[in-house]
Design goal:
alpha/beta, about 25% helix, Muramoyl-pentapeptide Carboxypeptidase, domain 2, 14 strands, four-stranded mixed beta sheet, three-stranded mixed beta sheet, 4 helices, globular
Length: about 240
């Protein structure tokens, strides 16, 4: 997929607040989804008041204990760049083969309000961590960044925000460091072979989009594994909306 054709789908992604820039990742929608984004955004805005109250009530009842997952069937509404999440599931701060981190500080754990996703996405992350632990029992765990807000919708920081990550089907995954540590990483100190294993596994599991930085030399099926700016320190992964949603 040509970078130029994807770029046309990305809205302006930076905002100023009291002189401080809130970084917003420029992440694409899917090809030809412009009308769907507009329709989804209108639907989200119309339902916002009732949705916020009911989502808050549901979230309060299912916040899991550390290390556990309170599973339930989720619904992804709209699209990644204009949507919301119904009955989301919270990813624990840590689990087998993975830990979470805050992209603003690059330190663990990830914020409790930033770790919500569709049950399909959370199951995929848990499965990925277990697969990774089996494959690399003595290696570092996988670093998992942002998923979505508890009820999805706009993800405006603080400090780091996203244009997408709105309907519970997006997640950021840290590259694997060559030195085996669980810390901030970039193109100069990542393990290409082991990170490529993650990309291959995600594609095998049905990810519909994996954004990789232009300096990483990671590969995969065209239109699924896509080179994208500002992604030299993590993978942006999107799973497809379940047919039932």
């Amino acid at each position: 997929m040509a970078l130029a054709s994807l770029a046309a789908l990305v809205p302006v992604a930076a905002a100023q607040d009291s002189g401080t820039t809130k970084a917003m990742e420029r992440e694409p929608g899917l090809p030809d989804d412009g009308r769907e984004v507009a329709a989804a955004r209108a639907s989200v805005q119309a339902a916002a008041p009732d949705r916020a109250k009911s989502a808050a009530d549901r979230t309060a009842r299912v916040t899991p204990r550390t290390g556990t997952v309170s599973w339930r069937d989720s619904v992804a509404h709209g699209v990644a760049n204009a949507g919301w999440l119904e009955d989301g599931v919270q990813l624990p701060a840590t689990g087998t083969g993975f830990y979470t981190y805050n992209p603003a500080t690059q330190s663990p754990p990830g914020g409790a309000e930033r770790r919500w996703g569709h049950d399909r996405l959370v199951r995929e992350i848990v499965d990925l961590g277990r697969w990774w632990a089996r494959r690399h029992p003595n290696g570092p765990r996988l670093g998992v960044g942002d998923l979505s807000r508890p009820s999805g919708g706009p993800f405006h920081g603080p400090v780091v925000g996203h244009v997408s990550h709105q309907n519970g089907l997006d997640v950021d995954i840290r590259l694997v460091r060559a030195d085996g540590s669980e810390a901030q990483v970039g193109a100069s100190d990542y393990d290409r072979e082991r990170t490529q294993q993650i990309v291959d596994r995600l594609v095998e599991r049905g990810a519909e989009l994996v954004l990789v930085g232009p300096s990483l030399r990671l590969t995969g099926p065209p239109g699924v594994v896509v080179t994208w700016p500002n992604h030299d320190d993590h993978l942006h992964v999107r799973f497809p909306k379940p047919a039932a949603d």
